[in-house]
Description:
It is globular, with a radius of gyration of 17 Å. The longest helix is centred in the middle third of the chain and has 29 residues, at about 75-105. The protein is an alpha/beta fold. About 25% of the residues are buried. The chain is built from nine helices and five strands, in the order E-H-E-H-H-H-H-E-E-H-H-H-E-H. Helix 2 (about 30-40) packs across helix 5 (about 75-105) and helix 3 packs antiparallel against helix 5 (about 75-105).
Amino acid sequence: MLKVGLTGGIGSGKSTVSKMMAQMGAFIFDADSEARKLLMENTTVQNELISEFGTDILCPDGEIERKKLAKTAFQDEDHQLRLNAIVHPFVSEAFDRAFDRVAAAGEHDLFILDAALIYEAGLDQHMDYVVVVSSTLKHRMERSLKRGTLAREEIIRRMDLQWGDEEKAGLADFVIRNNGTKEQLREQVTEIYKQLV
C-alpha cells in the first residue's frame, strides 16, 4: 500500500481533493483532525501547549480554546514552529499506528496523509509520492473567506507562514491545478489516482 502525501496551501481545495480520493477508495489520514483530537484528549499535549504559550490560550473553564491558540500560534513563524514541535510528534505516531492498522486490513490501495505542512515538516521524506493542490491567490482567498472562520488578515498571515504553491509544486510528484470547475478538478484527481494505483 502506497503512502501518498496530499498537501496545498489554505484555500487551495486540498480537502475537496481528499474527499474525492476517499470516494475512489483511498484511506485518508487527516492531520488537522488528528491535531484537533489531540488538543481535546491528550493531556500531555495540552500541558505542553499551556507551558509553551501560557494561560492566554485557555477558556474560562480551563480548556484550551482553539481560536485563542491559533491566534497565538499563527502570529509568526517562531510561534508556529513551537506549536508544531509539540503537536507533530504525536500526529506522526498516530499516522504510523493508522498506517499499520490499515495495511494489515488490506482494504485500500492508497494511504493518504492529508496535511498542509508536508514539506515544511519534512514529512515528504516518509512518503512514496506527494500530490500538491495549487490554486491562484484569488481563488484561495475566495474559498477561505467563504468558510467564514477566518478574517482576511488571518488568512494572509497563514498564507505567509506556508511555503508558496510554486515552491511546493517544484518538489511534487503530481500537481493538481484547482482553478476551474469541480468537474475539471475531478478529472485531474481521477487521472492521478489511476496512475498511483
